[in-house]
Design goal:
This is Integrase catalytic domain-containing protein. The chain is an alpha+beta fold. The protein folds into two domains: 138 residues, Nucleotidyltransferase, domain 5, CATH 3.30.420; 71 residues, no CATH class. The chain contains six helices and nine strands. A hairpin with a 2-residue loop joins β4 and β5. α2 packs across α3. The longest helix is centred in the middle third of the chain and has 30 residues. It is extended.
Length: 230
């Protein structure tokens, strides 16, 4: 088994258990847990799971109990579907050719020379890399049109936390506070991700994207210190 130095996975009970933490520590791996609200971390995986679930639901609509036998065809359809960003299917990105659907097509893609197969894969990977960088540049240009640079946070800084998607029990959700806190920044994981210091009563994962927090503004008026949320 091969484990990456930085394992990125969902935040389920099997991944947050003591055994899994100790297992990763002994392997020298750093676990980076994510959830459905942090699309910046593993949005492609979340989107792929949604597409597979949607396709499987359509295939087994008449007989839901046959999903296990139909899953292989959904997997084949997904691996052979041409992606707009890469310009080719996932199977072609890995092996350099499209998988055959019928036995009569096997002769067109079979290659007995390992050297020729390796060269073909390298040419395919080079094309995919250029296509992906082109797609990333195009998506970033459109996405950054209305975005502003996030403020730089430091350890010990006080911030407000957005109450959206947090398990906060209030009598009126419409009139509840939109931000909670202030909380202290315990660790700056990256320019876009920080870890906050929560009290023991809050059973929430302390890592958040910078879009969910706002810095605390302090103002001194008539020798009185005021805290504002801007």
């Amino acid at each position: 088994m091969r484990v990456s130095r930085k394992d990125r996975g969902p935040r389920g009970p099997q991944f947050t258990s003591t055994f899994w933490k100790e297992f990763c520590r002994l392997l020298g791996a750093t676990v980076r847990l994510t959830n459905g609200f942090h699309h910046q971390a593993n949005g492609q995986s979340e989107r792929a799971n949604q597409e597979l679930e949607k396709a499987l639901r359509c295939v087994v609509s008449q007989d839901p109990l046959s999903w296990a036998s139909r899953l292989v065809w959904v997997e084949y359809a997904h691996n052979t579907l041409t992606c707009s960003s890469r310009g080719m299917s996932p199977f072609q990105c890995v092996y350099g050719y499209q998988p055959p659907l019928f036995p009569s097509q096997e002769g067109e893609v079979s290659c007995l020379s390992a050297l020729a197969n390796t060269r073909r894969c390298r040419r395919t990977w080079a094309r995919v890399r250029v296509a992906l960088w082109r797609a990333v540049a195009s998506y970033s240009a459109w996405a950054n049109c209305r975005r502003t640079l996030a403020p730089e946070y430091c350890v010990g800084q006080r911030v407000w936390l957005s109450a959206k998607d947090l398990p906060v029990w209030v009598e009126s959700c419409k009139l509840a506070a939109r931000f909670l806190g202030p909380f202290l920044v315990e660790h700056v994981i990256s320019p876009t991700v920080v870890r906050l210091r929560f009290p023991a009563i809050m059973r929430v994962h302390p890592t958040f994207h910078v879009s969910r927090i706002k810095p605390v503004r302090l103002f001194l008026l008539f020798n009185t210190l005021f805290i504002f949320l801007l």
